[in-house]
Amino acid sequence: MQENILVIGSSGQIGSELVLELRKIYGNSSIIASDIIPSSDEIISSGPFEILDVTDSKKLLEVVKKHDISQVYLLAAILSANAEEKVNLAWSLNMSSLFNVLNLAKERVIRKIFWPSSIAVFGPNTDKINTPQFAITEPNTVYGISKLAGERWCEYYFNKFNVDVVSLRYPGLIGWKSLPGGGTTDYAVEIFHEAIKNKKYNCFLKKDSTLPMMYMSDAINATLNIMTTEAKNVKIRSSYNIAGVSFSPKEISDEIQRNISEFSITYTPDFRQKIADSWPNSIDDSRAQKDWKWKAEFDLPKITSDMLKNLTAN
Ligand code: NAD
Ligand code: SER
Q1: Which structural domain range is residue 140 located in?
Q2: Cα 176 from Cα 309, distance rounded (Å)
Q3: Does residue 146 line the site of ligand 2, with CB under 6 A?
Q4: Is the pLDDT of residue 1 over 90?
């Protein structure tokens, strides 16, 4: 069956990579990129692109009909650190975007949705080590509350309206092709840019603040994997835990120093420290491993050498 896929939020950290991967699989003309701001030249020159505000349900329907869309990857959101500074906007964007897309599937205008959740659904009362799939979810950030509510609505729309929506709780994502958009884990991308440019980095988290992270190619593989898994094997319709690698600023800095010996790091924790302190150190993703054979490939040394190699070359 011909699939026309709409990616909403194609100018962001994940969208700028996911669109190109989807175009390799389904063909350039079948993947419609969209955002409120222009996407990369590579995206705009290789296939269709629409300026689209996902909170405008009328325009969303227009774009979906114009391109005969069957699947939507909804990536537009305000991330954890920015959300603490734009509380109302974050809540309204993160929720209304999801409802607008879920309702298109409920009305059978589209047939399938990918919507990412986050490790931010966990909170200070969650067991931090190997946090299980069904752990306590009492987030204390605007972003985490919106992701938890989103998970509940996804499961509700699946149970009540048979909407085929799938979701992953991404950890902090690290990639060289795109910059992060205002999260608490952004330091793990910034550190590589600064290591190459200035040989030093001032980190906004404490040296021992361990968080779950994942390389972008693993995150994209997981996303494509769950979107193509037979519906009967997707047993969790809220959102799956997925794990890559866990490390602290000190550990990533040590790994960079193994590659760039002059590199040095300082620590000036800011308001993002409190957010990081509320999140798990590591994630148990055994349900994803069992249900759809998920496994991450990149550990910290592999991430570090790939980031340094590609950022230096580009
Ligand atoms: P990002 O901030 O880099 O990109 C979001 C994009 O959405 C931006 O290009 C922005 O212009 C666009 N956008 C904002 N408002 C919009 C609107 N009204 N209509 C259309 N587009 C709009 O975010 P990202 O890192 O690419 O994250 C994508 C998704 O993955 C989000 O739901 C995020 O919560 C989730 N996630 C990301 C990470 C991570 O580490 N990057 C981790 C966990 C979950
Ligand atoms: N990387 C994201 C953030 O820090 C986690 O969802 O906001």
Answers
A1: 5-119+133-169
A2: 9
A3: no
A4: no
